[in-house]
Design a protein that fits this description.
There is one protein chain. The chain has 132 residues and is mainly α. The protein has helices at residues 15-21, 37-54, 57-65, 77-81, 86-96, 106-131; strands spanning 23-25, 31-34. It has a two-stranded antiparallel ribbon. The radius of gyration is 15 Å and the shape is globular.
């Protein structure tokens, strides 16, 4: 039997549930792959918007860190970086986060690694396109 192609519960309004249902995870809850990219990006967008509403750099970091984004590999990152609106969402949150918190929180550090890597891929694409 082939794996499902869409999220398990696409109608969830909870971004954490939507995120969990849009990815494949191993036994340790590390993300092995993305089931459904639009649902994944929707969950990230919802998390980011909720986090920005928190106001405080510490609360913003804690909110997105709670997503516990740990990838077993970054092979999905190229495709994630191509999703509509992802740059603006991640950039907006990264600007608000107190990055010194990454020294004390693995979950916040994992979020920052994820977001910074996606942003770097997108920036590299723009540089490459400008050079062509």
């Amino acid at each position: 039997m082939s794996p499902p192609t869409g999220p398990k519960n696409p109608v969830s309004s909870d971004p954490y549930s939507l995120l969990e249902n849009s990815v494949y995870q191993d036994k340790t809850q590390h993300i092995k792959g993305i089931r459904h990219y639009p649902a994944f990006v929707s969950a990230i967008t919802q998390l980011a918007e909720e986090a920005k509403a928190k106001g405080s750099p510490v609360l913003v970091a804690c909110h997105v860190g709670a997503a516990e984004l740990v990838f077993t590999e970054q092979s999905n990152f190229e495709h994630i970086s191509q999703q509509s609106g992802i740059y603006e969402v991640l950039y907006g949150v990264q600007e608000l986060i107190d990055h010194s918190l990454t020294q004390f929180s693995t979950t916040i550090k994992n979020w920052c690694i994820f977001a910074d890597t996606i942003l770097k891929i997108i920036k590299n694409h723009h540089v490459k396109e400008a050079a062509d």
